[in-house]
Amino acid sequence: MIIVTGAAGFIGSCLIAQLNELNFNYIIAVDDFSFPEKNKNLVGKKIMERVERTDLAAWMDANYREVEFCFHIGARTDTTEFNTVIFDELNVAYSKMLWNKCIDYQIPLVYASSAATYGLGELGYDDNEVMIPKLSPLNPYGVSKNEFDIWALAQEKKPFYWAGLKFFNVYGPNEYHKNRMASVVYHAYNQINSTGSLKLFKSHRPDFADGEQMRDFIYVKDLVSVCIFLMEHRKNSGIYNLGTGMARSFNDLGRSTFVAMGKDTDIAYIDTPEDIRDKYQYFTEANMNKLISIGYDKPFYSLEAGVNDYVQNYLIPAKYW
Q1: Residue 30 belongs to domain with CATH number
Q2: Which of 38, 145, 201, 263 is the most exposed place for a label (fewest CB within 10 A)?
Q3: Tens digits of per-residue pLDDT, 225-279?
Q4: Three-class secondary structure of residue 263 per DSSP
Q5: Which of 171, 179, 180 is nearest to 37 (CA)?
Q6: Would you say residue 137 lies in a domain?
Q7: Domain that holds residue 158
Q8: Domain count for the chain
Q9: Which of 40, 158, 178, 263 is catalytic?
Q10: Is residue 182 part of a domain?
Q11: Any idea which residues are catalytic in this one (predicted)?
């Protein structure tokens, strides 16, 4: 059996889809299943059992002998939430509980960290673990992810295999329920579909032209491919970046979306809201050498190919993966 937390969410459900395609069907899906919109992500998937998030500790105590692997994808990911109590409970304390269960029961663990831990990138985007305690995240979500990374690295006892993955800007199918926290690709598609044009933020820095702010956008199919690789690899524990290693501009993303929709490009620029302007990232790019050094050699989707697959095969037909 394979545990997947955050199973009904965007990335968790895509991971289950990929596991099913590889004939891993004894999936223990863990989540808060009280949100009907999220549960649509699990329709048609092969799942052995659904376990409520609050019941997982007791479930593991009773069933640990059958568990082969644990993917801890679930978290509160809202970067606009400032109630630190929520992050302390769901992103830190819950992760510590799961970490300790994986030690007690000798279960390998892959968990989701975040590139939000890098803040404005003052120290770069290198997954050198020595630098992790020095990072300055910009919001409570990033702080909670960095806090757990620091805690994990400091532990004398660790799962016999573990990896933390710093997800960069992920986009792809099954994010319909995320509303304002969905990817820029998702919002671009909907905006173009309804208005025929796309609005992007202006640059408020002289060294970047409007729309030339850059992010490392990673297609969710690449992300879950790395997760599967680590499940099969099971050595070289540690914390890894998970992006493509190539920053691309929002203009590139917008143009790719217009092309995938078969429409002429029409991009306009609006002021970045003042309340986020001083915390706005103008550049992110994952250093991917560490993951490549342990043997991951599958090419990543280009932005154009990823956006085209997402738009053509999921957004236009309104399909789930």
Answers
A1: 3.40.50.720
A2: 263
A3: 999 999 999 999 999 999 999 999 999 999 999 999 999 999 999 999 888 887 7
A4: coil
A5: 179
A6: yes
A7: 2-171+219-245+282-300
A8: 1
A9: 178
A10: no
A11: 141 (proton acceptor), 178 (proton acceptor)
Question: Residue 299 is encoded by which pair of tokens?
Answer: 């090419």
Task: Give the residue numbers of the binding site.
Answer: 10-11, 31-32, 38, 53, 73-77, 145, 169-170, 178, 180, 187, 201-204, 215, 280
Structural contact between residues 144 and 78, judged by C-beta atoms closer than 8 angstroms: no
Active site residue 141: yes
Its pTM stands at: 0.95
Contact 288, 243 (CB under 8 A): yes
Q: Tell me, yes or no, whether 252 lies in a domain.
A: no
Binding site per annotation, positions for NADP(+): 10-11, 31-32, 38, 53, 73-77, 145, 170, 178
DSSP states of 75-138 as a string? ----TT---HHHHIIIIIIHHHHHHHHHHHTT--EEEEEEGGGGTT-TT-S---GGGGGG---S
Residue set of the binding site for substrate? 169, 180, 187, 201-204, 215, 280
